[in-house]
Amino acid sequence: MLGKYGLGAALFAAFASLSAQAQTQAAAPNWPSRTITIVLPLAAGSGMDTIVRLYADKLSPALGRPVVIENRLGGRQMIAASAVAKAEPDGHTLVVLTSSSLAIGPTLFKDMRVNPAKEFVPISLYVKSPFILVVNPAMPVKTAADFIAHAKAQMASPLSYTSLGPGSPQHLSMELVKSQFGVPMTHVPYTNTPQSVLDVTSGHVSGGFAEAGASLSLIREGKLRALAVSSSQELPVLPGVAPFAEAGKLPGFEAVSWHVLLAHAATPKPIVDRLHAEMKRIMADKELTKKVADMGLLPVDTPDVDGIRQYIASEQEKWGSLVRKLGLEGSQ
Questions:
Q1: Taking residues 115-131, what's their average pLDDT?
Q2: Is-contact 10 284, C-beta < 8 A?
Q3: Checking CA distances to 319, which of 1, 29, 232, 302 falls within 20 to 30 Å?
């Protein structure tokens, strides 16, 4: 059952959806007039794809039109972004992007092709994707504090950590830890997640921040040890594994990826408001949020459109500053 606050939020979201629907019918009476396409920069079957299909199934009856998913991979998410930036700004073509392109990319990439801040309007910030600090179980550490202490004791022969390459969220998350605690660690970049995680289980690499989807089963099998999560709150799928902010005694620490649904910047405001209200209502659904949480992700009660813009700007400053500090500006 929903608690009184959850029920209140659900009722408010439903009321906002009805209000936005009335305003859209008055200002844009023919919208939507055809199928709505959500373009994704990641593959079918990925976590992003799974979540989008979950809410697309609910968005379709709410809007009275089919909602289809189109996977356009490559170009550091810019192929998907470019397709929507070139589409008609009529609310029928949307895109999902992550922190990699919205917060890290503007500083890391030499050529973005698309300026997300200028060419898109955010609709919904609906999920955060935390990382799990994992190590080989043979390492003599049980907590994030143990890990930091052990790393500091290994100054002569620094511990190593995995990531998906320079500038990846996992790389920057660990570099943030290194800068906050002053610990030396050696970066070992990989081209794919499975191999990077496998090399932690085999002891070739000391540890690293891993995505839940790639590490949960190995944690449960005892092949990896989870020390902390990078989000500011505990993950329901990992009860007892503290947030890094608490485990590492680093208040305010959060290093997560996140997903945002966006539309063309010139999309009429009533359509943006309608989509925002429908997404807020849909993502408040208890069954849907449980499915998202069971994937090792954190459902988000989206801020309003301006609030999303402010969040993206703050994340861009946070990660952009680190990219510049590491000498990676414009390196990709």
A1: 97
A2: yes
A3: 302
How far out from the chain centre does Cα 278 lie?
Answer: 20
pLDDT at 8: 54
Say how far apart CA 192 and CA 272 lie, in whole Å. Answer: 36
What's the CATH number for 4-129+257-325?
A: 3.40.190.150
38 near 95, Cβ under 8 Å?
yes
Distance (Å, whole) CA 257 – CA 230: 10
Q: Please, what is the average pLDDT of the chain?
A: 92
* Residue appearing with tokens 């994704």: 40
> Structure tokens of 69?
């998913």
Nearest to 62 by CA among 268, 265, 269, 276: 276
pLDDT of residue 252: 86
Residue extent(s) of CATH 3.40.190.150 domains in the chain: 4-129+257-325
* Ranges 63-77, 208-222, 235-249: which has the least confidence: 235-249
The DSSP secondary structure of 186-239, one letter per residue, reads: EEEE-SSHHHHHHHHHTTSS-EEEEEHHHHHHHHHTTSSEEEEESSSS--TTST
Share of the chain above pLDDT 70, in %: 92
Q: 329 exposed, middle or buried (CB, 10 Å; 0-12, 13-18, 19+)?
A: middle
With bands split at pLDDT 50, 70 and 90, how would you rate the model's confidence at 149? very high
* β partners of residue 68: 37
The residue type found at 190 is Y
CATH code linked to domain 131-247:
3.40.190.10
Q: What percent of the chain has pLDDT over 90?
A: 84
Before 140, cis peptide (omega within 30)?
no
| 190-193, long-range: CB < 8 A, 24+ apart | 190/162, 190/163, 190/164, 190/165, 191/164, 191/165, 192/164, 193/164
